[in-house]
Amino acid sequence: MLESRVKRPPGRARQEEKLAYRDLGEFVQKLEKEGELRRIRAEVDPILEITEVTQRVARDKERLPDSVGPALLFEKPKGSRVPLLVNTFGSVRRMALAFEVNALDEVAGRIQGFLKMETPQGLFDKIKMLPKLAELGSFFPKSVKTGACKEVMHHGKDVNVLDFPILKCWPQDGGRFITFPLVFTKNPETGKRNVGMYRMQIYDERTTGMHWQTQKHGAEHFRRARAKSPEGRIPVSVAIGADPATALAGMLPIPPDLDEMMFAGFLRREPVEMVGCETNDLEVPANAEIVLEGYVNLNEMRTEGPFGDHTGFYSLEGDYPVFHVECVTHRKEPIYLTTVVGPPPQEDYYMGYAVERVFLPVMKMQYPEITDVAMPAEGIFHNLMIVAIRKSYPGHARKIMNAIWSLGQAMFTKVIVVVDHDVDVHNYNEVVWKTLCALDPERDVQFSFGPMDTLDHAARMQDYGSKMGIDATRKWATEGFTRPWPDEIVMDEGTQARVAAIWKTLQK
Question: I need a labelling partner for 213 at 20 to 30 A (CA). Which of 71, 125, 130, 501 fits?
Answer without folding.
Answer: 71
